[in-house]
C-alpha cells in the first residue's frame, strides 16, 4: 500500500516538512558523490562512517571500521579485535546524520512520500519549531529501541524511517478518522481506494511488529536488512509524545470540506 494523499487541508505551508524532504534529498546526493549509486545508495565505507552503529552507542569511545575485502565491520574492544580504528565521526553526530541517509532511490522515495502525506498535517498541528523537535526526537527514540534489541550489533543503520514512523504514530492519534487515498498493488493489477487513516496506520504498524518478530527470531547473521524495531520505536514515541507537542489540532477535520481528487 502506498499513500498518495489525505483529505485534510493545512492552514499554513508545511515549511519544515518541505525542508526535511529537501535536506534528505541533498544528503542522499552528497552521500553517493564519491561512491555508491542512485539505486544502491552510498558505498559501505560511507555507511559505516555516517550510519549509526549500536555497538558504538553502547560502548562509548570504541569505534568501528571495515576490515578485509568482504566489508566486514570490526569494532574496538570486541573479542579477537586488536589495535585502534581510524578516527570516525562522533557517535552523537552519526545518530543525526544517519536520519538523512538512504540506501537507494526506493528507500528515500518511500520515506519522503510518507513524510509528505502525513507530515504536513502533523506539522500544522504542532507548529514548525515543535515539529522539527518532535521529528528528531522520534528518530533518536527509534534508534534507541533498535539498539536496545541488539546492543552489540555492528551493522550500521541509515534512513529517515524511524523519524517518519514517529510522524505516523502522531498522525494516528491526531487524525484517526481522516481518509487516505491509497495505491494498492494486486499482483499485476493496481487500484486506488480511500482507506481510513486508522486502518492504514494500524496495518502498517502491525506489519512492522510481525516482521520485527520474525527478524528477531531468525536473524540474518549481521547481514543487514530493515530496522523494524526502529520503526516500532519511532511509532511508539509518536503515540506517546504527540499530545505534548500538538496544540493546534483541527478538531473538525473529518467534515466533508476537503475532498480527495
List the SSEs and their pairings.
Layout: E1 2-6, H1 15-31, H2 44-50, H3 54-58, E2 64-67, E3 72-75, H4 91-97, H5 105-126, H6 128-149, H7 161-174, E4 179-186, E5 189-196, H8 197-217, H9 228-245
Helix pairs in contact: 1-5, 5-6, 5-7, 6-7, 6-9, 7-8, 7-9, 8-9
TL;DR?
By secondary structure, the protein is mainly α. The protein is 51% helix and 11% strand.
Question: What report would you give on this structure?
Answer:
The chain has about 260 residues and is mainly alpha-helical. The protein has one domain: Rhomboid-like (Rhomboid-like fold). The chain is built from nine helices and five strands. Helix 5 (about 105-125) crosses helix 6 and helix 7 packs antiparallel against helix 8. It is globular, with a radius of gyration of 19 Å. The chain starts with a strand and ends in a 16-residue tail after the last helix. The mean pLDDT is about 90.
Q: What is CATH's topology name?
A: Rhomboid-like fold
User: CATH class, anyone?
Assistant: Mainly Alpha
Number of strands: 5
Overall 3D geometry? globular
Computed Rg: 19 Å
CATH architecture field: Up-down Bundle
Please outline the major beta sheet: 3 strands, antiparallel
Residues in helix, %: 40-55%
Unreliable residue stretches? none
- Euclidean distance between termini CA atoms: 18 Å
Beta strand %: 5-15%
- Given helix and strand content, the structural type is mainly alpha
Could you name the key traits of this structure?
mainly alpha; three-stranded antiparallel beta sheet; 261 residues; two-stranded antiparallel sheet; Rhomboid-like fold
